[in-house]
Amino acid sequence: xxxxxxxxxxxxxxxxxxxxxxxxxxxxxxxxxxxxxxxxxxxxxxxxxxxxxxxxxxxxxxxxxxxxxxxxxxxxxxxxxxxxxxxxxxxxxxxxxxxxxxxxxxxxxxxxxxxxxxxxxxxxxxxxxxxxxxxxxxxxxxxxxxxxxxxxxxxxxxxxxxxxxxxxxxxxxxxxxxxxxxxxxxxxxxxxxxxxxxxxxxxxxxxxxxxxxxxxxxxxxxxxxxxxxxxxxxxxxxxxxxxxxxxxxxxxxxxxxxxxxxxxxxxxxxxxxxxxxxxxxxxxxxxxxxxxxxxxxxxxxxxxxxxxxxxxxxxxxxxxxxxxxxxxxxxxxxxxxxxxxxxxxxxxxxxxxxxxxxxxxxxxxxxxxxxxxxxxxxxxxxxxxxxxxxxxxxxxxxxxxxxxxxxxxxxxxxxxxxxxxxxxxxxxxxxxxxxxxxxxxxxxxxxxxxxxxxxxxxxxxxxxxxxxxxxxxxxxxxxxxxxxxxxxxxxxxxxxxxxxxxxxxxxxxxxxxxxxxxxxxxxxxxxxxxxxxxxxxxxxxxxxxxxxxxxxxxxxxxxxxxxxxxxxxxxxxxxxxxxxxxxxxxxxxxxxxxxxxxxxxxxxxxxxxxxxxxxxxxxxxxxxxxxxxxxxxxxxxxxxxxxxxxxxxxxxxxxxxxxxxxxxxxxxxxxxxxxxxxxxxxxxxxxxxxxxxxxxxxxxxxxxxxxxxxxxxxxxxxxxxxxxxxxxxxxxxxxxxxxxxxxxxxxxxxxxxxxxxxxxxxxxxxxxxxxxxxxxxxxxxx
Length: 782
Fold this sequence. Notes:
Layout lengths: L1 H10 L1 H20 L16 H13 L6 E6 L8 H12 L6 E5 L1 H4 L11 E8 L3 H11 L9 E5 L1 H35 L2 H25 L9 H29 L4 H28 L7 H32 L17 H12 L1 H16 L7 E2 L11 H12 L8 E7 L26 H8 L4 E10 L4 E8 L6 H12 L6 E7 L1 H35 L3 H26 L4 H4 L7 E2 H33 L2 H30 L5 H33 L8 H10 L21 E5 L2 E10 L5 E4 L4 E6 L2 E6 L2
Helix pairs in contact: 1-10, 2-8, 2-11, 7-8, 7-9, 7-21, 8-9, 8-11, 9-10, 9-11, 9-21, 10-11, 10-17, 10-20, 11-20, 12-21, 12-22, 13-18, 13-22, 17-18, 17-20, 18-20, 18-22, 20-21, 20-22, 21-22
């Protein structure tokens, strides 16, 4: 399959490159339209009780989350002064009615919660007209008209917060690319020594970034796309594109140096490195598609966008890059500025020798390190996303913090209680198609007994009437409390209110608010997480089974992934929940980790942790098929992939490190999680733990029951086996005798063809490979 794809790419190289360039130029303007079309939030479960409460607030009462909050302050004049009121109202009356639907102030509502504790600050709540995009346009039209002479005015609310997130995301993306691209280019020049070779992965990376923008822009036509998705998707696309390109480019240069034609070099590269890139891309995409099992828009949009951009990066590395290599041929090493240091060497040979000699020691030592890194996750506390994900200098965050600090406790984080009241007809309904059913109106006395019961609950500091819906027979109550919204006592209070029996005249009670939303989110994620793990683990197992023809290797790979993920989660808790890296990365410690982002990290890290193990196992399998010796295959696979995998990991770390400088805490958190996973996977797991376990498992690594061999042959995408290097001269042998390996000039037995297609060499005196000094030697054994 991949050999055929390689020949197609070689023969159509100019056509493919021309089409790729034309498509990139045409879609670039469309992709840039993404900015401003992304949505805030998306962390709630659409079917949760708290989500229903929020929808009722918007539809029945004009909204509970203000579009725009204008905070006013004077250093000496109090809010009760007529001059204060006149100045604010004169400013608000001048706002264009075409954009503003409703304005609420302390003087129009009489709400004491709209006045600060020192009575020198107040805020107005502005509701804008239209949908999300219309509200953004409306805010742009009024934001410059909100200033008031002699008053300090700052602006916040959901619409300004979303604009700040969009602006911060765009700035973070530009900064990350400005930081990572030059560093990546320098590292590529060091790895390859040639400016031409170093520039090719960057071309593929830029195509993937463009693909990320276009794919997300397309998604906005059919669904909401989280504002946080741009950095996440771009980071993955750019990093994996460079990673995959490095493997393909290294394989092509190796083939060229063997002296084959350019066409055969492209074909062999596609059949070896291309096959591995394809399986890696499918594995990462599968892990990300597992996010579609969750109902939260945040996870679903990132899952769709990230999986799609991984496929784009994979296709660019398997189509555009081979086409460029086919055109360049041996000129891929042109413009050499540094000597070729090579990607294999004595260091990885020594590592392989050491691991093969002491596998148990390495297994226990590395396992202990990974478990130690994972231990902090046992004390994880889950929180939610709020204004603190933005830098402290952002105005909309400053407004939210000022209201939390200076006004009534939890004035904007009350528990929302919606009471549906039983109503009776006051008269017979009028006849005719346009009749109106007359019912008794809803009044405060209808829910007074229930309010009294709420006021008697421990921790409740007050219950306010915040809305009536006559059409729906509903009353909205705000239950205020004395604790932090994420305090365990607040969660117990929400559960208690939900368990209260309604009064006889009440149909039902629906409880919402930030605390209820957080509780519903944890329940939603917990109920779907096992299904995600089953889906991702099952599909990954099948992909690895198809790739390697073994039952034990996929199981071992999944276990290795659990260790890498555990280490990442432990470091995240230490860095963000405990605040150990707060001063380094510049974020606000909240004492918790956002639960939805944790699931996102699980999916991303699972895919990335499988990436390098796939490249290692592919080479080990190739050596196993060639020699039939497990120990020699593991050692040779580690030695031959050590340099290239380390280089790829270093390049990916540069990209992720650049994105970790983002101003949005969610992106920092994801970046740190990915950074730790790659460091752990590329060093401890791939270089030490995987070889040690494979050395101990021996031939069992490749065990496959006879009844599965036929099935595997039908689904296997066979890997091209490059010809072995020429063997040293040897004396003539009798017919039927073969060499044990290219380094063993002695006959070891006769060759047999087994029914499953494997070649087994039977020796009268068995021979094994053993490390000796800096090399390997053949030794006879009984």
